[in-house]
Design brief:
The protein is 34% helix and 22% strand. The protein is built from seven helices and eight strands. The strands form two sheets. A five-stranded mixed β-barrel has the order 1-2-3-5-4. A three-stranded antiparallel beta sheet has the order 7-6-8.
């Protein structure tokens, strides 16, 4: 029996039988996997405070032969991120991040950058920074990692390169921008300022600390929110259940 050990984020926790827990967790190298923690509800010794949703933990587990389920042998808490549970609004934001990650990364699809993005976003949320900005940045970065970057290089209709001057118009159907000659700004095709386009580019290239330092303008949120909502609704088959609480 080969035992793996991995840094993990707890995504879902479900009671199973009288004393077990079924845990869905996200790992950098194996993606989202599911395991059973035998007796975890009766004896907490092997799993001291480490099987709670959102927690960053180190889990030891091995694959059960038949059903693709893992046996979770033990766990060690790295960070419980208590700040994520301190109020309802933050809890919803963290839940939304989990849900979006699940939608973009199905079972056994690993992406270590996605793992880092989720972990870093939880860290910032936990410390109580600007939680609205973290959520929007997270969504942009996650969509890009999941293969849904917004194309910002050129007009998606006439092909003219966007040189960072003037309003760019978002077109949900092309998943990219259009120039003002091809598309006017409407509710269904919102406009983006050059600064916002630049910031989106930066975040799509990787959610780093620098992205947060760059974002000083409140206009960014007002511009990017409607774009992100349209983009997500157009690209993803289902609407995240938590999205309604966020909006
Ligand atoms: Zn054009």
């Amino acid at each position: 029996m080969e035992i793996s050990s991995s840094s993990s984020i707890i995504m879902r926790v479900k009671d199973f039988g009288e004393s077990d827990l079924i845990i869905t967790f996200f790992t950098p190298l194996e993606g989202k996997i599911k395991g059973i923690a035998k007796g975890a509800r009766r004896s907490r010794k092997r799993f001291v405070n480490c099987l709670d949703i959102f927690s960053h933990v180190k889990l030891e587990y091995s694959l059960k032969k038949k059903d693709g389920l893992y046996f979770i042998h033990s766990g060690k808490l790295i960070d419980a991120y208590p700040g994520l549970r301190k109020d309802y609004a933050t809890l919803i934001k963290a839940s939304y991040m989990i849900e979006l990650t699940e939608m973009l990364f199905p079972w056994h699809l690993p992406d270590s950058s996605m793992f880092d993005t989720l972990m870093n976003s939880f860290e910032i949320l936990d410390k109580g920074g600007n939680t609205h900005i973290v959520t929007v940045f997270f969504e942009l970065a996650a969509m890009a990692l999941g293969g849904y970057s917004i194309n910002l290089e050129k007009c998606s209709i006439c092909g003219r390169p966007y040189k960072g001057v003037g309003t760019a118009v978002f077109r949900p159907d092309t998943g990219g921008i259009a120039c003002m000659r091809c598309q006017g700004v409407t509710k269904a095709t919102p406009g983006l300022s050059p600064d916002t386009v630049n910031l989106i580019k930066k975040i799509q290239a990787g959610l780093t600390k620098e992205c947060f330092d760059t974002c000083t303008s409140k206009d960014f949120l007002g511009e990017i929110r409607p774009v992100l909502k349209l983009h997500r609704e157009y690209r993803l088959e289902n609407r995240p259940r938590t999205a309604g609480y966020l909006e």
